[in-house]
Amino acid sequence: MMTATYDHVSIDKHAHIGFADQCITRTLYFADGSKKQLGLIQPCSLQFMAKETLRIELISGICQITCGEQRPAAYRSGQSFFIDAQIPIRIDCEEYVQFICHFEG
To answer: CA nearest 68: which of 86, 93, 87?
Structure first.
C-alpha cells in the first residue's frame, strides 16, 4: 500500500538532476539508516543499469519498462516494479511520472 506521507525524515536539500535534465530526485534519510528517493521523470526515454536492486513505486503517470531481454511492461500510478542490479533498463514515459525509489539491497 502506498504511503501518502513520511514522518521523521531528513531531506537532502540539493536535488539530483540527471539523464540530460530529464529526471530530478531528492533523497530522504530515515532514522533507521535507510533512504528513499522521490523523483520526477519528464516525458522521455531513459536507459541505465542500477548498481543495486530497486523497487520503483509510481505516484502518478504511466511508463513502459523494459528489463534486459524481457518484453516491455506498462505500469501506472499505484503500481510498483523491481529493477535488478546490473541489468540494462529502459524506461519510456509519454507523460510526467512521479515516483518513489526504494533501495532494496
So the answer is: 87
Q: Do 45 and 95 meet the contact criterion of CB atoms below 8 Å apart?
A: no
Q: Residue 16 belongs to a domain with what CATH number?
A: 2.60.120.10
5 belongs to a structural domain: no
Domain that holds residue 46: 10-103
- Please give the Cα distance from 23 to 104 (Å, whole number): 20
User: β-pairing, 23-30 with 54-60?
Assistant: unpaired
Spell out the per-residue pLDDT of the chain, length 105, in tens: 567 788 889 999 999 999 999 999 999 999 999 999 999 999 999 999 999 999 999 999 999 999 999 999 999 999 999 999 999 999 999 999 999 999 986
- Asked whether residue 71 is assigned to any structural domain, the reply reads yes
